[in-house]
Design a protein that fits this description.
By secondary structure, the protein is α/β, with parallel strands linked by helices. The chain is built from three helices and seven strands. The chain has helices spanning about 5-35, 45-70, 120-125, and strands spanning about 5, 70-75, 90-95, 100-105, 115-120, 135-140, 145-155. The strands form two sheets. A five-stranded mixed beta sheet has the order 5-4-3-7-6. It has a two-stranded parallel ribbon with strand order 1-2. The two termini are about 25 Å apart.
Length: about 160
């Protein structure tokens, strides 16, 4: 399944992959080798922790490597009109809160924070394909929110 991602998100994951592969993993391998040289491995906390950390690193490297094959980098700066698509920065009017909130629609592997939501999230799914002045109902685990799209930009 294609995973859409922003150029910034792709760079961050690529940097993480490169760091884990070229810096972190060799360091942990050396630490495990040093701990193993101390003798009894069954009661050697450094050895046991190092092996566990090595498995975590290898698991993350495997996940990232598989994910890169399915990624499609999409530049959010490319204009796509006034409809909400991947990369759009969308301002919503929340009727229940009587407030406006702005999100950028990004991929699930992008860095998500208060200003970014995944296109697979309840918010993303509710507003994808809609345009300015369209209303949507967002079904979240806590409640339903009725929103109106106030602005759509590709920046």
């Amino acid at each position: 399944m294609t995973q859409y991602i922003t150029p910034a998100g792709y760079r961050a994951l690529r940097e993480e992959f490169d760091f884990l592969k070229t810096v972190e993993r060799p360091k942990v391998v050396q630490e495990v080798a040093d701990a193993a040289a101390h003798g009894d491995r069954s009661e050697n906390a450094e050895y046991i922790y190092g092996k566990r950390r090595l498995r975590e690193i290898d698991r993350r490297l495997g996940f990232l490597n598989r994910s890169f094959a399915d990624m499609q980098v999409v530049d959010p700066k490319v204009p796509r009109g006034e409809k909400v698509f991947f990369g759009a920065t969308v301002t919503l009017y929340d009727h229940e809160a009587d407030d406006e909130v702005t999100y950028q629609i990004v991929g699930p592997l992008d860095t998500l924070d208060e200003a970014h939501v995944s296109y697979r999230s309840p918010v993303g799914q509710a507003i994808l394909g809609l345009g300015i002045d369209d209303e949507a109902t967002i079904h979240t685990p806590k409640a339903k929110r009725r929103v109106t799209i106030v602005d759509v930009r590709y920046i």
